[in-house]
Amino acid sequence: MMESPSPQAVPPPVLPAKTASIARAAALIREGRLVAFPTETVYGLGADATNDHAVASIFAAKGRPRFNPLIVHFADPDDAFREVMADPRAATLASMFWPGPLSLVLKRRPGCRLSRLVSAGLDSVALRVPASTTARRLIAACERPLAAPSANRSGDISPTTAAHVVASLNGAPALVLDDGPCAVGLESTVIDLSGDNALLLRPGAITAEAIALRIGPLATLADEAEGVPRTAPGRMARHYAPGHPLRLEARTVAPDEGLLAFGPRPLSGARITRNLSPGGDLVEAAANLFAMLHELDNAPVRAIAAMPVPDTGIGIAINDRLRRAAVPLSDPEACA
Ligand code: TXA
Ligand code: MG
Questions:
Q1: Which ligand is nearest to the CA of 47?
Q2: Interhelix angle 282-297/315-326, nearest 10 degrees
Q3: Digits of tens for pLDDT over the chain (336 positions)?
Q4: Which residue among 41, 105, 187 is best mutated to probe the pocket of ligand 1, counting the most ligand atoms within 8 A of its Cβ?
Q5: 201 Cα–ligand 2 center, Å
C-alpha cells in the first residue's frame, strides 16, 4: 500500500529574526504550532507552555521520552516567579544571572498555569529567562511562556545554527527563526531548588562556583544518592551523540579519524581536523563544540577523536557534553 507523503518531509521556512517574522512566529505559537527560535545557548523548539496539546507535540516531534521534563522560557523574571513557590535562593540567582543561561527548578504553585506535561509528572518546573533579545521579543509577542527543549531529535547533537535545526527536525517546526550561530553554544546550567539542598543537575556557562558564591555550596546527584535521591530525569548517559564513535582524551590520532582538537598544538595525521580553540580559550571552545561535532559527524571518517579539554570553568560543561556524546549505543545505561 502506498503511504501518504508525510508533512514532516517538507522543510520549514527559515526566516531571519525581524519584527515581521517574530510576529508571524508568535501567531503560529498562539495557534498551538511549534516554532524553532534562537537563544544564546542553543536553538529551542518552542510551544505555548500553557497549551497541553502544543506541549505534547514537542515530545512527538523530538521523539523525547515522556519522563523528561521541559524548560519553560519567560520574557521577564516576575512572570516566571508567578508560576512557582517563592524561594529566596531563586530570587538571588535571578537578580545576578537573568536574563542568561541559567535554568532554575522550583516547586509549582497551586494554580500554576503551565501545562502539567512540561513537568513530566514531577511537582516542579524548570524556568529560564534567556539573554537573547530575539527570544525575549518572541515570548513577549506570544504573551505566554514558551516550553522549549533544544531543537534536535532526542539524543542528537544540540543545534547552534538554524541549519542544524532543519537537518535534525526537518518539517517538525512550522517556522525556524534564524539569528545566526548561538553565542554561548552549550545548554543552560540547570539548578534544582525544589528541595533544601541546591543541586547542580547540568553544568553550563554559569559555573557551580559562581552560583555557590551567592547561595552556598551545591550538592550533586552523587552526593544526594546517600539520602532521598532526587532525579535528573533528562540526564541520560548517552546524549549529544554524533553518529560516529567518539573517543575521548586522545593523545594520538589515526588517519581514518576526524580530530576535535583543542589548543595551539593539535595532533597531526587526522583525515580532518576542527580546532575548538587554537588559542586555548574555553569560552570560544564551548561556542564551537556542537557545530564542530556536526561537521566531523558529516565527514567521511570512521571515528572522531577528541583531545583533552581542561576541566575548569565552562570546560566542566564541555567535558560533561563530550562524555555523554561518547557513551556507546550498546551501553545498557544509555537512553535516547
Ligand atoms: O539552554 C537551554 O536550556 C536550552 C534552550 C533552548 O533554552 N534548552 C534545553 O532544554 O536544553 P532541554 O529540554 O534539552 O533540557 C532540559 C533539561 C533536561 O535535562 C531536563 O531533564 C531538565 O532540564 N529539567 C527540566 N525540567 C526539570 C524538572 N522539573 N526537574 C528536573 N530537571 C528538569
Ligand atoms: Mg537537549
A1: 1
A2: 20
A3: 333 444 456 889 999 999 999 999 999 999 999 999 999 999 999 999 999 999 999 999 999 988 899 999 999 999 999 999 999 999 999 999 999 999 999 999 999 999 999 999 899 999 999 999 999 999 999 999 999 999 999 989 999 999 999 999 998 999 999 999 999 999 999 999 999 999 999 999 999 999 999 999 998 877 765 554 456 666 677 777 888 999 999 999 999 999 999 999 999 999 999 999 999 999 999 999 999 999 999 999 999 999 999 999 999 999 999 999 998 776 544 443
A4: 187
A5: 13
Q: Is the CB of 44 under 6 A from ligand 1?
A: yes
Distance, CA 159 to ligand 2 centroid (Å)?
9
Long-range contacts of 24-28 (CB under 8 A, 24+ apart): 24/175, 25/138, 25/141, 25/175, 25/177, 26/138, 26/141, 26/142, 28/174, 28/175
